[in-house]
Amino acid sequence: MHKITLLPGDGIGPDITAATKKILAATGVAIEWEEHLAGESAIPEFGTPLPETVLESIRRNKIALKGPLTTPVGSGFRSINVALRKELDLFANLRPARTYPGIRSRYEDIDLVVVRENTEDLYAGVEHMVGEDAAESIKIITRKGCERICHFAFEYAQKNNRRKVTAVHKANIMKCTDGLFLSVFNEVAKDYPDIEPEDRIVDNMCMQLVQKPELYDVMVMPNLYGDIVSDLCAGLVGGLGLAPGANIGKDYALFEPVHGSAPKYAGQDKVNPTALILSAVLMLRYINEEEAADRVEKALAAVIKEGKTVTYDLGGSAKGMEMAEAVVAKMG
Ligand code: NAD
Question: Are 226 and 141 members of one domain?
């Protein structure tokens, strides 16, 4: 029996969570869910977007599946996603992006993996006002942070039979911070002689990904570039509805889609549950339930290829739950 913390989250979170739970139940994998409110939806009951019970539950179960959480723009509470990643030291954010036949996209056969450092960089949100008319943000990059994320990327490449790892940076301008990231990457690369290392400046990387994505494989980068480049990759393979993610640390792992809470679609069961379903597939692989993971992924790919029971973003009119039911039917 796997005991797993479940955070349905805000906005569209509860809809895509219900669809994903239905599919996981059909795999036969014994999962006991421990469900908690987090984010905006926790505030009325707990007076905070991150009740202590959420962290306690993840620390106890070591694995969590999470829907998106709303973060107010500009003012209001700080991101609970960032807080969870920091509190649990989930230093590696793995974001695969691959094309599934049947999806209308400008590209075919894309198979990219973004490995995003998850705890440092400008994303740590260490910033303040300087008087009323200026603001400063501090970009934190440490040797330890660079070492562990670069090792993670090369180890991922080795385990998954990938051929190369590209470091993405802006070390020409940010010579200290991104310079440190790049020099650690080059040192770490020497421990993995079977994997080809290379590096690209982030702006050029974005252009190259749009023009020739087939040239790239695993990419590793500081937090903020990872945030942006992984949405770009999601766009290459058909949109945010299809992009899964995993936040992995030494002791805990939290699986969540790349997309946010899309508040305008909340409660309509309209959006695509695929990104959360594929996040759950990553979770099944992480807990060594490979066979169940393969069955879900194959059935989902078949539903997408058929194109009959898919959500609006894939050109269909099915509800999220109808798509999940079609996946369950294909699982046989
Ligand atoms: P978003 O990802 O929520 O939505 C942007 C657009 O992408 C949507 O309007 C919709 O058109 C499309 N989209 C997103 N998910 C989809 C799905 N599953 N199926 C089909 N289409 C989908 O981004 P946003 O509007 O910038 O952010 C909304 C909120 O989500 C913000 O509060 C933000 O902070 C939060 N957010 C949370 C996470 C997270 O919890 N990990 C990640 C990103 C954004």
Answer: yes
Q: Are residues 197 and 250 in the same domain?
A: no
At which of 214, 237, 260 does a domain end? Answer: 237
* 269 classed as catalytic: no
Clarify whether residues 67 and 171 are in a common domain: no
* CATH number for 42: 3.40.718.10
What lies within 8 Å, CB to CB, of 175 at 6+ separation is none
Residue 123 known to be catalytic = yes
Residue among 154, 136, 226, 221 nearest 193 (CA):
154
| Interval 161-219: pLDDT, tens | 999 999 999 999 999 999 999 999 999 999 999 999 999 999 999 999 999 999 999 99
9 and 122 co-located in one domain: no
Tell me which residues have their CB closer than 6 angstroms to ligand 1.
68-71, 81, 240-241, 256, 259-262, 271-272, 275, 313
- List, in sequence order, the alpha helices (H) in the chain: 13-27, 43-46, 52-61, 80-87, 143-159, 177-189, 202-211, 223-236, 274-286, 290-306, 320-331
Nearest CA residue ID for atom 40, ligand 1: 68
Active site residue 109: no
Q: Are 99 and 108 in contact (CB under 8 A)?
A: yes
Q: Residue 166 gets which letter from DSSP? A: E
Joined tokens for residue 103: 């999806």
CB-based contacts of 221: which residues, under 8 Å, 6+ apart?
114, 115, 116, 117, 167, 168, 169, 202, 229
Query: 72: domain range?
Result: 1-91+242-332
> Is the Cα dihedral 207, 114, 10, 238 positive or negative?
positive
Cα–Cα distance, 261 to 20 (Å, whole number):
16
State residue 201's pLDDT score. 98
